[in-house]
Amino acid sequence: MKKYNVVVIGVGVVGIEMLRVLRQRNFPIGELRVFARSARDISVDTERYSVKPISPEGFEGIDIALFAGTEGEKGAAVTYAAEAVKRGAVVIDNGADFRMDPQVPLVVPEVNAKDVKKRKKGIIANPNCSTIQMVVALWPIYKQAGIRRIVVTTLQASSGAGKAAVEQLRQENSLIAAGDFRYLHAKVDDKVLPQQLAYNVFPHIGSFTDCDYTNEEWKLVKETHKIMHDDKIKISATTVRVPVRTGHSEAVYIETARPITPEKVRGILSKSPGVKVLDDPKNNLYPMPKDAEGKDDTFVGRIRKDPFVKNGLWLWVVADNLRKGAATNAVQIAECVISESK
Questions:
Q1: Same domain, 170 and 217
Q2: 79, 139, 236, 240: most buried by Cβ count inside 10 Å?
Q3: Which positions ≥6 away from 145 have C-beta within 8 Å?
Q4: Residue 129 appears among annotated catalytic residues
Q5: CA 296, CA 339: separation in Å to the nearest integer?
């Protein structure tokens, strides 16, 4: 089996998960390099990695460069992706910088794996975590019955904002457990979230922009259109931060172009790659983020018909935002790249 030289750029929560996923999926690695802003040694489970400072020369001999990405600000790929491509690497970027570039494919392998061939710049973009799990769940329905409209509310975990947000949630919980409720948010060190998260939810992820929607909400619109190659779908989103460590949940409402029953949807999704149906609410069976953590599937439940709107359906969709929502999807893209080269 041919081996590929791989580099992971970034050792935050997504970069760490990329290293874990590469090992767990037995990716055919020749040499593995790890880059960050500064040198250090890290441990991921039982494996030790020597992290080197990122530099253009570090990409010499690399076949695949996995950029962990930084949401909300310019990621390392803006500076170094072109350098990696110039030296022969295929770049897979988890950040937002290239997602809407018409020359850069935006890929979820269960939906549009063939788009990896369209990388005119040598770069493939990994979609936003919330978009990934939604389109994995909706694509099989779209193929069978079409989709005219999507209304989605996301319930997004702290890890979606990075390890500092997870630490903020931990500190806030500790303060509350100690009985200190006064000025809680002001007492937390290095706050990265705009509001207290412990014992709270707030509808503010990203920055507010057109029509008073956040850029996180617009990502669900624009990225879904690009991935599914259908910009006629009417999409409206509300994104909410919730006090969960890892695992995003979504309440997704769709109106299909053609009638389809909940029973038919369950059957289709049960046979779809990357999807697991957990849908027996009478026995308290439905997806929850605590059960999705550490798994690569997208879990779907609460599939039910809207009793008042023809062709209206509800779904409840849950996935690990660090794995399928980021690291696993990126590694799956890399697997598509090496498959096409065989």
A1: no
A2: 139
A3: 256, 257, 258, 259, 260, 311
A4: yes
A5: 20
Residues 211 and 192 occupy one common structural domain: no
Per the listing, tokens 């570090």 go with 58
Residues 190, 284, single domain; the answer is no
User: Do 265 and 142 fall within a single domain?
Assistant: yes
Given the residues 185, 204, 229, 248, select the one marked as catalytic: 248
Bridge partners (DSSP) listed for residue 250: 154, 317
> What tokens were used for 107?
């890929």
Structure token pair of residue 257: 């172009």
Judgement on whether residues 228 and 266 belong to the same structural domain of the protein? yes
CATH of the domain at 299: 3.30.360.10
Give the domain extent around 295. Answer: 131-157+201-321
Task: Give yes or no for a contact between 20 and 44, defined as CB atoms under 8 angstroms apart.
Answer: yes
Average pLDDT of the residues of the chain: 94
Number of domains in the chain: 3
User: What does pTM read for this prediction?
Assistant: 0.94
248 is catalytic: yes
Residues 76-128: tens digit of each pLDDT: 899 999 999 999 999 999 999 999 999 999 999 999 999 999 999 999 999 99
Catalytic pick among 129, 185, 204, 229? 129
Distance CA 204, CA 28 (A): 40
Q: Which distant-in-sequence residues (6+ apart) come within 8 Å of 186 by Cβ?
A: none
